[in-house]
Structures are given as structure tokens and as C-alpha cells.
């Protein structure tokens, strides 16, 4: 990792549960990485300069390639650092399918649960930002409803935790057996969020003895080796290098994409977020990469997952 071209730079803030998922992934790989701490709330000018407007946490940077969304980050980590693997069994396809639920519906359910439990105690600016992001345009009414529905929301989270507890009841160390996998990190960030951000989280989780044992095993993995980096240094790193993403579009693309097309990419939800504009460089079933240039950051490739993101042709 001494070559700056290949150094992993991680843009996140400590309280982010999705960032914790990736930090555990770093630990599974035993990686050394650089930490750029970003604000919890917009504006995030140093981050969005690199992403072209994408404001979600976390973002990974390797040289002049920028990886948005933990799904895309974990894919790229496995490609670049294949050993130890995130996929220690032959169930890779099932794990990725399951991760779309852990990172999607299950996480969204947990966000509503935690926001609803906090109620009026939430910081107003934080409530407005995250409420709009996760609850939609009428977020204030949805937040009140979440508070009223809290017992129901707790029951909806309790069921999958019971399933996880059953999975661990044979004494295994991790969800798939003796070796940690990406799916451990993808479930763990929900448990970490519940324990740390809900006042009743520790007592609620104590019901699940085998799950708590698994939680301790995941904590024991650690986060790899981290050192701080100034955000301006990260921008200068990007500006001094050229992106290395491959070029092309895989066959059978449903949108008929082609290299060089002007496009925008954004999360496929009504979160009020700014689309990222650029020209298409690469696309397959899992990933889309767009090129963009700006005077302050140089030439960049911004990588997104296909699942959960919308590509609009301009």
C-alpha cells in the first residue's frame, strides 16, 4: 500500500452505520487505509467535489477512482484484494441477493425504528436531513407516525434478529461458519446501529444470546490499520492521477448504454438528492462508471452499483 496510486482512502464520519459496515470489511481483509472525516450533514463540499454531487456516506477513493455506496465498495475491495475473501463458501450469489435486503429494506426499517424512538429529541437539522432522505417529502408526518408505531417497528426488527440468533445457535463463529464473510459485515452494521443509537438497544439485544456472541466475534475482527488524511490531500491525490477504470459495456444491457453517452446517476429513491452527471465509461450487470472532469479535481471516474441506482440518458 506504499504506492499512493493504490492507497485506499475512506471518506466517512464515525457515527455512520454504513461506514461501520465497510470498516469491518477492511478488518476482514486486514487492510491499511486512510481516513478522511466528512461532516454528518450537508454541505460536504470536499466530498461532493470528488463525487460530482453524491452526498451519501461512505465513499471510497483509490487514486482518481471514486466508489459510491458500500455495495460498490465491497465489490471493489474483493476485486483488488481477493485474499482473504469476502466469500468463503460457494454461496456468493445468495449472499449478494441477501445483502440487497440487509442494506435495503432491513436497514430502512431500522432507520425508521431509531428515528421514531428518538422522536422530539432528534436534532432538528439532522431530523430534516435524514427524514427527507429515508422517509420522503412528507418526512415530518412520517416521523410522527414512526414514533406512534414504535412497538410495531420493534417487532419487525425482532423477527430477523431471531433468525440470525437461530443461525448462530450451533456455536459457529460467524454466519457462514468459521471464517467471516461480507454478509457478517452487512448484518452487523444493523446490530451496531441498534445498540449504539437506540436507548433500549442493549436490553433489546440481550434476548439473543447467540447473536450477541456473534456480535462480539465481529467486533474482534477490528477495522484493519487506519491513519488520518486531510481532505485537501485526498483531492490533490485525485488531481495528480488518472482513473484506471476499464472501458466498455457488457452485452445485453437493458438500457442500451454505450461508451461516451452523457448520463446522470442517482439513488433510485425520492430522497431529494442531486444526480451525478458525466459520460459513460463502463457498465455491466453490477456496476456503472461515469467520467467527469473539473478544474479543482481533474479527471475522475465515479463508480456506482446498478442495483438501487437509476441511470438517466441525457
Automatic annotation (TrEMBL):
<dbReference type="InterPro" id="IPR036282">
    <property type="entry name" value="Glutathione-S-Trfase_C_sf"/>
</dbReference>
<dbReference type="Pfam" id="PF13410">
    <property type="entry name" value="GST_C_2"/>
</dbReference>
<feature type="domain" description="GST N-terminal">
    <location>
        <begin position="6"/>
        <end position="85"/>
    </location>
</feature>
<dbReference type="InterPro" id="IPR036249">
    <property type="entry name" value="Thioredoxin-like_sf"/>
</dbReference>
<dbReference type="InterPro" id="IPR004045">
    <property type="entry name" value="Glutathione_S-Trfase_N"/>
</dbReference>
<protein>
    <recommendedName>
        <fullName>GST N-terminal domain-containing protein</fullName>
    </recommendedName>
</protein>
<dbReference type="Pfam" id="PF13417">
    <property type="entry name" value="GST_N_3"/>
</dbReference>
Amino acid at each position: 500500500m506504499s504506492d499512493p496510486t493504490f492507497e485506499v482512502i475512506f471518506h466517512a464520519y464515525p457515527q455512520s452505520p454504513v461506514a461501520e459496515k465497510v470498516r469491518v470489511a477492511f478488518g476482514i481483509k486486514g487492510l491499511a487505509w486512510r481516513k478522511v472525516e466528512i461532516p454528518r450533514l450537508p454541505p460536504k463540499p470536499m466530498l461532493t467535489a470528488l463525487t460530482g454531487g453524491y452526498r451519501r456516506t461512505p465513499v471510497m477513493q483509490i487514486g482518481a477512482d471514486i466508489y459510491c455506496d458500500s455495495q460498490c465498495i465491497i465489490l471493489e475491495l474483493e476485486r483488488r484484494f481477493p485474499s482473504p475473501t469476502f466469500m468463503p463458501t460457494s454461496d456468493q450469489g445468495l449472499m449478494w441477493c441477501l445483502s440487497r435486503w440487509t442494506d435495503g429494506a432491513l436497514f430502512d426499517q431500522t432507520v425508521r425504528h431509531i428515528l421514531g424512538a428518538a422522536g422530539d429529541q432528534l436534532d432538528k437539522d439532522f431530523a430534516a436531513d435524514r427524514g427527507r432522505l429515508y422517509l420522503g417529502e412528507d418526512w415530518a408526518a412520517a416521523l410522527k407516525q414512526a414514533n406512534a408505531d414504535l412497538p410495531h417497528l420493534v417487532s419487525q426488527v425482532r423477527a430477523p434478529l431471531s433468525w440470525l440468533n437461530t443461525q448462530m445457535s450451533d456455536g459457529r463463529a460467524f454466519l457462514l461458519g468459521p471464517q467471516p464473510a461480507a454478509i457478517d459485515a452487512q448484518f452487523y452494521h444493523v446490530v451496531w446501529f441498534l445498540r449504539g443509537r437506540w436507548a433500549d438497544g442493549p436490553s433489546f439485544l440481550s434476548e439473543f444470546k447467540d447473536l450477541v456472541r456473534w456480535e462480539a466475534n465481529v467486533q474482534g475482527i477490528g477495522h484493519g490499520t487506519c491513519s488520518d488524511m486531510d481532505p485537501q490531500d485526498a483531492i490533490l491525490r485525485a488531481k495528480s492521477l488518472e482513473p484506471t477504470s476499464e472501458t466498455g459495456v457488457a452485452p445485453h444491457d437493458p438500457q442500451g448504454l454505450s461508451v461516451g453517452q452523457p448520463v446522470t446517476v442517482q439513488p433510485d429513491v425520492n430522497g431529494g438528492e442531486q444526480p451525478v452527471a458525466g459520460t459513460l465509461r463502463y457498465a455491466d450487470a453490477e456496476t456503472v462508471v461515469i467520467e467527469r472532469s473539473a478544474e479543482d479535481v481533474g479527471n475522475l471516474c465515479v463508480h456506482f452499483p446498478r442495483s438501487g441506482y437509476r441511470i438517466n440518458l441525457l
